[in-house]
Design goal:
The chain has about 250 residues and is an alpha/beta fold. About 45% of the residues lie in helices and about 15% in strands. It contains eight helices and seven strands.
Length: about 250
């Protein structure tokens, strides 16, 4: 694994109470960053912080509802207040609701998915950028999905939101690269997380079916996804701008 040095950097991560967000928070902290662990699940966020501090890292838990612009602004303000600024952000919070075809999908299911997974990323960028400009630049990594690159029946809200994250990432990347902020997205396949575990619901058959969708033949470990986030936030990817990077075990290959 690459060795990163984020000493002196301040990182804010949404959806960091579990899964990819937790794995990313732990890796940034292990590489020397001060990490704000933000989630609507404050108890889970505190658990992530405990993992980090027990390992000698620096982290704080902050409650955030990414579907609420004021809440996201408050998270960024708290980050700046606690650690003096913001250098890196991972807009990662997401949900998976009950599946339904479009004609059968309740309006509130559609609206909630878009609010959390698309508007949540918009609010993140909106409020993170000014804090980064005050530091002279920074890096933002947004979590899209393999479902942001292809269609998937029964998940119109999820698929539309994740496609939207890619378009938002590309536009924001063009708007702010000349001011020293690099913005990219990751497109994970299925990775170990509480959300995925709830989806599979302990069914070995369901897990095998999900694993079979990936040519690599398995579900990812969250740490494998986190490695890509750290790379995109590091100087090692200094010429990478506006990319939507699949990390999906071949899931979206033609």
């Amino acid at each position: 694994m690459p060795q990163y040095d984020f000493d002196g950097k301040v990182v804010a991560i949404t959806g960091a109470a579990s899964g990819i967000g937790r794995a990313t928070a732990r890796k940034f902290a292990a590489a020397g960053a001060s990490v704000v662990v933000a989630d609507i699940d404050l108890e889970g966020a505190h658990e992530t912080v405990a993992m980090i501090t027990d390992a000698g890292g620096v982290a704080s838990a902050v409650h955030v509802d990414v579907a609420d612009s004021a809440s996201v602004k408050a998270m960024v303000d708290a980050t700046v207040s606690m650690y003096g600024g913001l250098d890196i952000a991972h807009n990662n919070a997401g949900i998976v609701g009950a599946g339904a075809n479009i004609a059968d999908m309740p309006d509130e299911t559609w609206e909630r998915g878009i609010a959390v997974m698309l508007s949540g990323v918009f609010y993140g960028i909106k409020h993170e950028v000014p804090a980064m400009l005050a530091r002279g630049g920074g890096a933002i990594v947004n979590t899209s999905s393999g479902a942001g690159l292809i269609g998937f029946p029964g998940m119109a809200n999820y698929v539309a939101a994740k496609h939207g994250v890619i378009g938002l990432t590309k536009t924001a990347a063009l708007e702010y690269i000349t001011q020293g902020i690099r913005i990219n997205a990751i497109c994970p396949g299925t990775a170990r997380s509480r959300m995925v575990d709830e989806w599979i619901n302990g069914s070995a058959e369901a897990e095998a079916q999900v694993a079979a969708l990936h040519p690599i033949g398995r579900i990812a470990d969250a740490d494998e996804i986190a490695e890509a986030v750290l790379w995109l936030a590091s100087p090692a990817s200094s010429f990478v701008v506006g990319v939507a990077m699949p990390i999906d075990g071949g899931y979206t290959l033609p």
